[in-house]
Design goal:
Helix content is 74%, strand content 3%. The protein is an all-alpha fold and 438 residues long. The radius of gyration is 21 Å and the shape is globular.
């Protein structure tokens, strides 16, 4: 075996990965060297796909009951609103309690909420407002579950492999966008919506098994940076993480980047309008755009794991993603639109996975949970607000203008914090034991 190459055994497969002489373990599947993460990764694929499967059933039920989009919009707000309102508080809890314990509770509650919805559907008592209440409950639990899962990944693999773990999470998300609707559509047609919900409840069992069986090694105690309280000292402060992130130029830039790019990861907003109103393709064209975005996103997620990201790299990827959005928005022909959407998937996922890794690695350990809580407020918590603005813009000025505005806002966020990315890389390079990036 040549130096820098390692065989990884995961779930019965042997995978060749690369290692870096600098100490940062590169390669798209490097994090899978850690067996607990390997099983966690597999469980996340089933769980995320199950969530998409349930969304198919929920959307179908709402349309059957009411037949318009207003109720669907309210349902989305009920699901994402708790993240916007409570994400910072959730991050504070994560910093002051074991992530594994939190996740056991959140995954159990998510299972229970799906089983409750299943019981309502089977009994024939399901209706719109109970569905909204269950969705709000699920959104509240998810506001705590999402940042806890991101930090738990770091607990499993350590800082050297976190880039690979974060990028593989993006693989999970994009695989679920393909597998979940396909499974949901098949179950909806053959067995009805109740089975879609039951399948989602069952998919939480795999992550729960990993959480119960594997306990990460406790992290070494870290000294707080000047001006910061030790985690667990005094009352948890939800705003302390946000204040800290805003005081750090790179973290502030990444949070702004996450909020400004959130619309790019909501293809159900722009792609139906581009397919039907602009290119007159109908529902099949909408499905084609979703598939093309996913096809570009998967290699983008894998590329993000190859090496530790730098601020300059994130900045360049964000600019590339914004240019691709502008090209797609102005596409004169379908071929140009498809190319622009595929490249948007590639660069946007590469960018957001790299930015997520930077935020975790460059945050003070005692405030990491609260910073990631702020990250979930930015993405996807801001979507109830930004999606409403984008939808209104699409109705008044057209889908092309609305989609172009999403790309322009991303570029503006990059330009507003241009120097922060370079300065952060220079500061990191001067630290003892720094690992070269990019």
């Amino acid at each position: 075996m040549s130096p820098g190459v390692e065989l990884v055994s995961c779930l019965g497969w042997t995978i060749v990965t690369a290692t870096s002489e600098t100490g940062f373990h590169g390669g798209p599947l490097a994090a899978l060297r850690v067996r607990p993460f390997c099983w966690w990764f597999a469980g996340q694929i089933t769980s995320a796909s199950g969530g998409m499967t349930q969304l198919v059933a929920v959307g179908w039920l709402v349309l059957r009951w009411h037949g318009n989009g207003l109720e669907l919009g309210l349902l989305s707000t009920a699901g994402l609103g708790p993240t916007l309102l409570g994400g910072l508080w959730a991050g504070s809890l994560i910093d002051h309690h074991q992530r594994r314990t939190i996740l056991i509770w959140t995954q159990s509650l998510l299972t229970a909420s799906s089983l409750l919805l299943y019981a309502l559907i089977v009994s024939g008592t399901a209706s719109y407002w109970p569905l909204v209440a269950i969705t709000m409950l699920t959104g509240t639990v998810s506001a705590l579950d999402a940042p806890a899962r991101q930090i738990y990944v770091l607990d499993l693999v350590g800082t050297e492999r976190v880039a690979g773990a974060v990028s593989l999470y993006e693989v999970v998300i994009n695989l679920s966008r393909v597998l979940g609707p396909a499974i949901g559509g098949a179950l909806l047609a053959t067995s009805g919506p109740a089975w879609c919900v039951l399948v989602n409840a069952l998919t939480f069992l795999a992550p729960l098994a990993v959480l119960i069986h594997y306990q990460p090694r406790p992290a070494a105690p870290s000294s707080a940076k000047p001006g910061l309280r030790q985690a667990g000292a005094g009352r948890p402060s939800a705003l302390e993480g946000l204040r800290y992130a805003c005081s750090q130029p790179l973290l502030r830039a990444c949070l702004l980047l996450a909020a400004s790019s959130a619309l790019l990861f909501t293809p159900t907003l722009f792609y139906p309008l581009l397919a039907t109103r602009v290119f007159h393709l109908g529902g099949s064209g909408y499905g084609l755009l979703l598939a093309v975005f996913g096809a570009g996103a998967l290699p983008g997620a894998l590329l993000a794991s190859r090496r530790q990201p730098t601020g300059v790299q994130v900045r360049a990827l964000a600019l590339a993603a914004s240019v691709c959005v502008l090209v797609a928005a102005a596409a004169p022909a379908l071929a140009v639109l498809l190319a622009g959407v595929a490249l948007t998937g590639l660069f946007s996922i590469w960018m957001i996975a790299s930015a997520n890794t930077l935020v975790q690695l460059r945050s003070a350990p005692e405030l990491r949970g609260r910073v990631m809580g702020a990250w979930t407020v930015a993405l996807p918590g801001t979507l109830p607000v930004t999606a409403l603005i984008a939808g209104a813009l699409a109705d008044t000025l057209g889908p092309r203008i609305a989609y172009a505005a999403a790309g322009a806002s991303l570029a503006a966020a990059v330009l507003a914090c241009w120097g922060a990315y370079t300065q952060a890389d220079q500061d990191a390079a001067q630290q003892p034991g720094a690992v070269p990036g990019g």
